[in-house]
Amino acid sequence: MKLGYRTTLQTDFDDAVARTREALGDVGFGVLTEIDVKATLKKKLDEDMENYLILGACNPQFAHRALGIERQIGLLLPCNVVVRDDTDNPGTVIVEAMNPDIMVAVTDAPGLPEVASGAAELLQKAIAALD
Q1: Are strands 79-85 and 52-58 parallel, antiparallel or unpaired?
Q2: Which regions of the chain does DSSP assign to beta strands (E)?
Q3: pLDDT at residue 1 above 80?
Q4: Which Pfam families does the record cross-reference, listed alphabetically (predicted)?
Q5: Could you tell me if 13 and 51 are in contact, meaning their C-beta atoms sit under 8 angstroms apart?
Q6: Is the pTM of this model over 0.85?
Q7: pLDDT (0 to 100) of residue 68
């Protein structure tokens, strides 16, 4: 099973973040959380790293269905989408979205595979739209 879906963009970090937010919104995902890993590690540990942002993306319909099937599935929500500079290729930004099938792998709840499949289809569509 793939951990996630990935694309690379030849652009700057801020543009990649804006395009990712737009692509997620176009397929029905909102961004509920945002973790600036670079800023957090600098503040907490005085460590430097490349731009690295984790967006917590949520599609309300799929989240509602998944929670109706298995309340503990909230431990795996929202779906993480990472936008990060490619340190090996300056001017390149990597965008990765988690594979919702991971939720299915940790529970055998009936009905969850269909929810994960639908969410996966939309996340793949959002990632593909960035190309």
Answers
A1: antiparallel
A2: 4-10, 30-36, 52-58, 79-85, 92-98
A3: no
A4: DUF302
A5: yes
A6: yes
A7: 96
List the chain domain ranges.
Answer: 4-129
CA–CA separation, 2 and 40 (whole Å): 28
With a cut of 90, say whether residue 88 has pLDDT above it: yes
Q: In what order do the strands lie in the sheet with 79-85?
A: 4-10, 92-98, 79-85, 52-58, 30-36
Distance CA 26, CA 37 (A): 25
**Which residues lie closer than 8 Å to 71 by C-beta, 6 or more apart?**
none
Cα within 13 Å of Cα(115), Cβ side: 26
CATH architecture entry for 4-129:
2-Layer Sandwich (3.30)
CA distance 39 to 100: 27
What are the tens digits of pLDDT across the range 41-56? Answer: 999 999 999 999 999 9
Give the integer Cα–Cα distance in Å for 122 and 26.
Answer: 9
Q: Hey, what are 15's tokens?
A: 């543009």
DSSP character at residue 51: -
